[in-house]
User: Fold this.
Amino acid sequence: MRTIDFRKDLLPHSDKLFRLAYRITLDKAEAEDIAEETLLRVWQKRESLDEINNLETYLYTICRNLAIDHNARKDSANLSLDTHTADSADTAATPLERLVAADRLDWVRRILNTLPLKQRTVLQLRDIEEKSVSETAEILGISQEDVKTTHHRARRAVRTKLEELDNHGQ
Assistant:
């Protein structure tokens, strides 16, 4: 029987769980609560985790389900991430370039928020959390082919909308 240590085994996943919950709920406070609830639920079930092959995947699955349940209960629409400011590397040389980069990042956030939940979640897991196709499929409870298709469609939708924005002024 494997002993689960909260600090060593569960706590290191809290940031990733928050990001996944945030991408689904689009609410910082709710995402924090969901990440904490996920850790608490797994901790309370620590005695029965012997059957779990991959603890991280198990955590992601619970977090995803809690976030989706939260959305269903609130019957929420996609909320804006405008209140959240992301820390990004300051690689732009001039204030104008920094402004353009910040504006572009804001547009990417807005576009992501308009995607269907499944596409947002797949993009979060694959591109941001860098999960494999098989891990993403297991977390979401869908086939690997569905993950690949959804990922492709989500990236294409983001790319198309960004190209429309870029060409808008021409």
User: Anything to note?
Assistant: The chain is about 70% helix and 0% strand. Residues 76-86 have pLDDT under 50 and may be disordered. The radius of gyration is 18 Å. The helical segments are 6-10, 14-25, 28-44, 55-74, 95-114, 117-128, 133-140, 144-167.
